[in-house]
Design goal:
Layout: E1 14-19, E2 25-29, E3 36-37, E4 64-70, E5 73-79, E6 90-96, H1 101-111, H2 113-118, E7 124-125
Parallel strand pairs: 4-7
Antiparallel strand pairs: 1-2, 1-6, 2-3, 4-5, 5-6
């Protein structure tokens, strides 16, 4: 079951931050297979501060997530070395609206299956990060 409305405006308000197939962290748009976005996504309250700033404390294992809400958007951030093996490599996913953690993970799976397919770990919410 989809957590989103049928394709339309809602998918235009979902973005992934992290590596594509090569080293280098960028914003990716869910519409049209995920083209790179070189600047802050339109309407999104986060920019490149999510690069190491949206995840749980350093040293936490891959897949452990922090949940954030800001200006009508929800974001999860996690440490992720699936493409970039250097310490501190990370990912984030944001979706317009107020969503709980399970909804965010379901939307990530639906809209960015190529990200989820490479992960060999489950996403889970860090204790105390359910704000």
């Amino acid at each position: 079951m989809s957590v989103l409305a049928p394709p339309g405006p809602d998918v235009n308000d979902a973005y992934y931050f992290g590596c594509g197939t090569d080293v280098g962290h960028f914003w990716w748009h869910s519409f049209g297979g995920g083209p790179k976005i070189w600047n802050r996504p339109a309407g999104c309250p986060w920019s490149y501060e999510v690069d190491g700033g949206a995840q749980p404390d350093r040293g936490r294992p891959e897949g452990l997530c922090a949940l954030h809400r800001k200006d009508g958007w929800t974001l999860i951030g996690w440490w992720d070395c699936t493409v970039d093996r250097r310490p501190g490599s990370c990912s984030a996913f944001t979706l317009k609206g107020d969503h709980d953690f399970a909804e965010m993970v379901a939307a990530l799976r639906e809209l960015f299956p190529w990200v989820v397919a490479r992960m060999r770990f489950e996403l889970r919410l860090a204790a105390g990060d359910g704000s």
